[in-house]
Every structure is written in structure tokens, then in C-alpha cells.
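Hey, I was hoping to borrow your eyes for a little while. No rush at all, and the record is pasted right below:
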Amino acid sequence: MSTLIMRPLDTGKTITVLSKNEVTAGNDSQTFTIDSEAVLFSLYVTSITGTLTVTAWTQADTGKAIKVLDFPVISGPTTDLLLRKIADVMSIVRVDVSWTGACQFELRARGVSGGTTSVRLAGAVNAKASQINCPASETALIPVSLTDRAGLIIKNNTPSSTLWVGFEVGESVSGNGWPLAYGESIGVDLQAGQAVYGTGSTTIDVRILQAGG
């Protein structure tokens, strides 16, 4: 049964959708109205022993709804905020969260404008190298970021393995994802606002280079 957050979400305002510290499996839902053009969600998982699933739906006054957001299935604590922005929404948003074990997390929503303005300073250089161990289940290799990102390179660094890459839940699997064998890499011009998911044939040492953010 979904509960309703009474005050509407305005542009520039932030609300706590759900804040949980649970010792057993469970689920919860929250519904809120918006007066902003878009909604930016932030998810932070402090601890978890099972998995955490977060989906968002937008609905009309008649109650008919469509899913507009899937966070990656979370199976471990997050080191940074996971951010997802949705713009194609009606005035009502419902968030469904389920967890299979003990967990502590906070999900927040901020009203933002629908457009995006990007400003770059001439001569500024920002690049980052990172590593993540991708298991044999869909995992967010790179969460959505609001900072400026011009492009990235992803490399499979584990012998005798395959990494499948995609850009939303359900894409980074053997039937749909872009396969990277050991030593292979893929480079894409990918701006902020897009997550990257991966699934390994085994646990894979993934190396990542990002430029511009």
C-alpha cells in the first residue's frame, strides 16, 4: 500500500522519499506530486545483506501508470550517491522499493528543470582512472553523474572471460549486451546523465577511463 507525501515537490526543493534501517526483508512505496519539470533521485545504501530494488512509476489521475525508472539492483553498500533523472513524468510519481535482507538506505528526490546547461572552461582538463569488480549479475559500472563527462573507455582485464556492457537494466546480458573479451575495450562519447551496466561471465576486473568528469 503506497503512502502519500502531502506537499508537492517544487523546483529546487528536496524531499526524503524513503529512509530505512531494516533487519528483515520487506518492501515499501511512496507517492508524491510534483510541480517541477523533472525529478532527480539520489540513492545511498549504507549497508545491505541481500539485494535492494528501486523502481519509479508515473501515473495519471485515473491511476494508470507506466514505469519510468529502474535503479540497478543493489547487492552491496554504495561508495557514492547513485543519481537518476527522469523528465517524462505526469504530476504524480510513485516509488516502489523492496529488499531481501537487512539493509540501511536513503532515497531522496529533488525537483529540477527539464533542460540541461553545460559550461566548459577553456583549458580545463579533468580525467579519472578507476577499477570495479563486476560479478556475474547486472551491476552499475558507472552510475549516473551530473558532472560534465565527455567520454569513457571500458576494458575487460580478466583472462578467459567475457564482459557484456549495456546502458540500462536488461541490456548488459549475454543476449543483448556488447561483448568484451579479455583485453578488449570500448570507447564511447557518453555525457552525464547516462549510467553504464555490466555483467561478467565470472567476476571481472574492469578498468575504466573517464574524461571531462
Remarks:
- The CA atoms of residues 84 and 105 lie 16 Å apart.
- The two ends are 40 Å apart (CA to CA).
- The mean pLDDT is 83.
- Residues 3-112 form a domain with the Jelly Rolls fold (CATH 2.60.120.380).
